[in-house]
Design a protein that fits this description.
- By secondary structure, this protein is of the alpha/beta class.
- 44% of the residues lie in helices and 12% in strands.
- The chain has one domain: Alpha-Beta Barrel (TIM Barrel), CATH 3.20.20.150.
- It has 14 helices and 12 strands.
- The strands form 3 sheets. The protein has an 8-stranded parallel β-barrel, surrounded by 4 helices.
- Helix 4 links the parallel strand 2 and strand 3.
- The longest helix is centred in the middle third of the chain and has 25 residues.
- The protein is globular and about 65 Å long.
- 47% of the residues are buried.
- The structure holds ligand L2XQQQDX and manganese (II) ion.
- The site of ligand L2XQQQDX has 11 residues, from loops.
- Its EC number is 5.3.1.14.
């Protein structure tokens, strides 16, 4: 049998198997088609950007490894993203950091960035049927130090307030031109390496800076604030903790950003979804993979991601969750890393959408807990991978392991020559 015909035949068998437990695979495929991941531009170049290409990455984050082929120019970042896009079914967004502006070789400081520095991105995104999201960048700058928006020095705080207001304005312009609100994510690394005694002061400063930043509403922006447990070199105190930002988001009608790597090592973010969504309209996710710390390993189909997707689908919250990716691995082929993580996220959502949720709910309501557990276990072995292959086939993107050779060819022709 020809390969495509085999995929179709496998899908028909899978469809029947799922139908026997009350699941409509065609419906799940339609839902998956409409999930837009926000691809993070920084996987292409190890969070370097175009403001200070020779500078080091600061702010408690690290991209480890030195695999050849890192993107060095805007053209190369775009070329890589176009390649990634060609290997993913569905329509996806791109999340840009403020350091990725098209500065035309000029030195433009962070408190000077303007929408015009991102116009070529807006045009490129439009030409590639992508929508944009945006992030202010507090790291890798002489004024970053250990604190930015919470610094004791008002001059430093004002610099970062100006940067963040400008970043929101850029997101607004993106949202306006693409006819769809852009998510703006605010994460700052602020903290201390050793015991802090005046935690309240720094948190008051951060709150005051946020009040100034969010004093204006931008019509085309969905604002999010991202907490963190700690950064490297800032292990003892993080000003923007989960409680801090959760309180701020709820009080001010913003989104909280949940990054899988920003919590205690055994803490899972899936269980935060149904609590947070009782108090905020929407959420932003940073799908990542922590290994012992916020190491930003490539996302794989692990329990944290499958449980997160399940919780979102079970809570009927797909329309209230913005799904961003956030990992950067410089030790393996970067495009391969990008695609593995994005596909793993799509697979997790598909698996969640293929759950026989009505039956599981019925068991739970009847206190039939053995039956609930048994069906959950059986679901793991249902042929979801055949449904995913069919999704790729229908989208005309590489099926199964075929994307490996496509990425090898891209390495040979493009990234390997950089
Ligand atoms: C580039 C960063 O990873 C990103 O802005 C932020 O979301 C983060 O997760 C920092 O740890
Ligand atoms: Mn993040």
């Amino acid at each position: 049998m020809k390969k495509d015909a085999q995929i179709e035949a496998n899908y028909q068998v899978a469809k029947e198997k799922y139908a026997s437990v009350g699941v409509d695979t065609d419906k799940a495929l339609n839902q998956l088609q409409n999930i837009s991941l926000s691809l993070h531009c920084w996987q292409t170049d190890d969070v370097t950007g175009f403001e200070n290409a020779g500078g080091s990455l600061t702010g408690g984050i690290q991209a480890t490894g030195n695999y050849p082929g890192k993107a060095r120019t805007i053209a190369e970042v775009r070329q890589d993203i176009e390649k990634v896009k060609s290997l993913l079914g569905g329509d996806h967004r791109l999340s840009l950091h403020a350091i990725y502006g098209d500065f035309g070789g000029q030195k433009v400081d962070r408190d000077q960035i303007e929408p015009k520095h991102f116009q070529s991105w807006i045009d490129w995104a439009k030409a590639n049927s992508m929508k944009l999201d945006f992030n202010s960048s507090s790291f890798s700058h002489p004024k970053s130090g250990d604190q930015s928006l919470s610094h004791r020095d008002k001059g430093i705080r004002d610099f970062w307030i100006e940067h963040t207001i400008r970043s929101r304005r850029i997101a607004d312009e993106m949202g306006k031109q693409q006819g769809d609100k852009a998510c703006h994510n605010l994460w700052v690394h602020d903290g201390m390496k050793d015991v802090a005694v005046d935690r309240l002061l720094y948190r008051q400063n951060l709150k005051d800076s946020l009040d100034k930043i969010f004093a204006n509403k931008f019509e085309n922006v969905k604002d999010a604030v991202e907490c963190k447990l700690f950064g490297t070199g800032l292990e003892s105190f993080t000003v923007g903790s989960h409680e801090f930002y959760m309180g701020y988001a709820v009080q001010n009608g913003l989104m909280a950003t949940l990054d899988l790597g920003h919590f205690h090592p055994t803490e899972e973010i899936y269980d935060k979804i149904s609590s947070l969504l009782l108090y905020t309209d929407e959420l932003l996710l940073h799908v990542s993979r922590p290994v012992r710390w916020d190491s930003d390993h490539v996302v794989i189909l692990n329990e944290s991601v499958t449980m997160l997707a399940q919780e979102i689908i079970r809570a009927n919250a797909l329309g209230r969750v913005n799904i961003g990716l956030d990992y950067f691995d410089a030790s393996i082929n970067r495009i391969g890393a990008y695609v593995v993580g994005a596909r793993a996220t799509q697979k997790a959502f598909l698996m969640a959408m293929l759950e026989p949720i009505a039956k599981l709910r019925e068991y739970e309501a009847n206190e039939q807990y053995f039956q609930r557990l048994a069906l959950l276990e059986e679901c793991k072995a249902l042929p979801w991978a055949d449904v995913f292959d069919y999704f790729c086939l229908k989208n005309n993107v590489a099926v199964g392991v075929d994307f490996i050779s496509e990425i090898e060819a891209y390495e040979k022709e493009v990234t390997g020559k950089r």
